[in-house]
Amino acid sequence: MKKKFSIEIRDALQEALKRGWEEFQVDEKYKLYSDYSDELRNSGFFESKFRKIIPHPGHDNAAKSIGKYFLDSLIQLEVNVDQFFPGDFDVSTETSNEEYQVRHFYMTAYYRKKAVCLLRFSYPHGHSAFTFPAPPMVTVEKEY
């Protein structure tokens, strides 16, 4: 039962994030956050000592826009998580490939006060340009 429910949680959240990502690609906020990101890039934000502990405001707000159906999905499943969306930046990790970076956040999903699984949310994004080249991916990292 648990394994099946973990997959149900993952699939529902994946669909919610995909829908939010598709809508964000054509939303007026995309341009607004992109322009703001350009200003930050020129301000020295990326070179500051705070860059490793403070999320990029443009990317953080974009992630929240992309995740706008996330809470609805949790409510429908009667599931809670232990983080605010998209997760704790200061404990997240980031990987890179030739085209973009991927920020990884982790949350534990609970059903009726019992831990069900640890979820990883991976957000593809760009640093050199404000871009979100693919929808976030949800992975079940561990089942309880």
Search tags:
single chain, 4 helices, 144 residues, 26% strand
Structure, described:
This protein is of the alpha+beta class and 144 residues long. The protein is 40% helix and 26% strand. The chain has one domain. Strands 1, 2, 3, 4 and 5 form a five-stranded antiparallel β-sheet that branches. α1 runs antiparallel to α4 and α2 runs antiparallel to α3. The relative contact order is 0.20. The mean pLDDT is 90.
Task: Set down the secondary structure blueprint.
Blueprint: H1 2-24, H2 28-43, H3 57-66, H4 70-77, E1 79-81, E2 93-96, E3 101-111, E4 114-125, E5 137-143
Antiparallel strand pairs: 1-3, 2-3, 3-4, 4-5
Helix pairs in contact: 1-4, 2-3
Pattern of helices and strands? HHHHEEEEE
Cα-based radius of gyration, to the nearest Å: 16 Å
In percent terms, what proportion of residues is strand? 25-35%
The number of helices is 4
N/C terminus separation: 11 Å
- Report the sheet with the most strands, covering strand number, pairing sense and barrel closure: 5 strands, antiparallel
**Would you report the number of β strands?**
5
**What level of helicity do the residues show?**
25-40%
Structural class: alpha+beta
How many discrete structural domains? 1
- Which consecutive residue ranges, at least 5 long each, have pLDDT under 50? none
Mean pLDDT: 90
**Overall shape:** globular
